């Protein structure tokens, strides 16, 4: 399996803080790689650095063999990287339709893709012409994910999609992400919900203090309770 | 609906207000005789377009610019200098247009590329500095601009008040060059506002709204926000310069007070806030309210003070004395911002239901 995304010795400074301290990671093509870790470990900064929203101060980031660490965010997005930020990041003043048209960069919306998205998130069809700001939290998250998958992307960076959502919505999201995975998408997924991580992840990376402290298969971590407790301070069993 | 680019006023009261304003403006030469009424109507038309162009920047991109009067002044001076230098002919009008508009667009492009890639406050400061420098420059280059006196000029024959196009004996109204100029101002202002409505409702307009809401998110979708913001800045500058051209043609004069003064910038800000930011329609409402108040509040207060005096009421005649009209104008604006925080258009739209019914959750 070839690696679609590779980070080598990546450092990121935000102001005077040294957040990422030499990250090395690889995201294999067609697989879901989970990025886990305690709050403040540097997971979101990793995604934002890949996306160019924070500039890496040192190190290399390659996407499909191409160096991207010095590219601007729009150029990285145009290379086929979709980003779903945390906290239900939709454009509140625009309608659901306008949000999706915008994500398709004003090209025509693919009806088949749209029907597929509506299959998972029927609420988006129901509130098609409503302002995104008037949607519930779960619906906003659905829209946020729909925006990232409305066009085929090489790589999806998704930041805590289940955060703050009701269990029923979480299940719908997991099903959707599984379906995206079955379609062959490559995903780097930050997640605090262990159940979701186990359901979706092929590989896992665990971060602490701005470095990767563990890498391996998700199934292996899910089966190893002492390792979970050592790395993350809680176990999957306790979480279920 | 096509003419409004699929973005109707979305409120019956607002629609009614707009229809009344537009009809009243269109019929001003016949309904309200006298030079003052026609001057006020022409100023409303010019400022409606000018404020709408500022709304494209402030309301749709969230960029605060203090250079809008500079672009307005560039248009005014370009036409004034051309007509002053080349004489009252259409070639001079064309020269003023083909000089003024590209100059405004180029300056907007330079300011945009230089300052829109960084924090919004930097853009505001740069525009303030450039506008101040331009004001000083216009004052210093008196051989060209006429300095503090400005430039008075004559219009081409067809647009002069003395040119009678349709005599009074035909319809009971005389249509002269002055009225033709008014309709030129009215029609071009209306076309510019409709064009801006088209811009903000285009895919480009949606990107601007996305940038206003969260620039990083828009970039993460692949939009080069600096180019979008710069393009919007250039469009706004072009419309502002065109409004400046219309204003100079109407006044037959361009000078620092009528074209470049910082108080015009404050007026634009007040009009856009009173009307409602990010609506375009707010520009028409804001300009109408502001300019009517600016021109008629003093006379109204005179009448009110006299009435209060005759009724023997204490304090009121003094409070309503016409000399205190600026105080009352200020109080009116404070009240309007307090009671209409989203502007008149925002408030009326909210009362009328607005866009999107929202979730039932």
UniProtKB/TrEMBL annotation, chain A:
Does ATP-binding show up as a keyword for this record? yes
> Which of UniProt's keywords are assigned here?
Amino-acid transport, ATP-binding, Nucleotide-binding, Transport
Keyword Nucleotide-binding assigned: yes
**Gene Ontology BP term (one):** L-amino acid transport
The ABC transporter domain covers 5-234
The molecular function terms in GO held by this entry are: ATP binding; ATP hydrolysis activity; branched-chain amino acid transmembrane transporter activity
- Which SMART domains does the entry mention? AAA
Q: Which PROSITE patterns match?
A: ABC_TRANSPORTER_1, ABC_TRANSPORTER_2
The family assignment reads: Belongs to the ABC transporter superfamily.
Briefly state the protein's biological role: Involved in beta-(1-->2)glucan export. Transmembrane domains (TMD) form a pore in the inner membrane and the ATP-binding domain (NBD) is responsible for energy generation.
Could you tell me what this protein is called?
A: ABC transporter ATP-binding protein
Lineage, broadest ranks: Bacteria, Pseudomonadati, Pseudomonadota, Alphaproteobacteria, Hyphomicrobiales
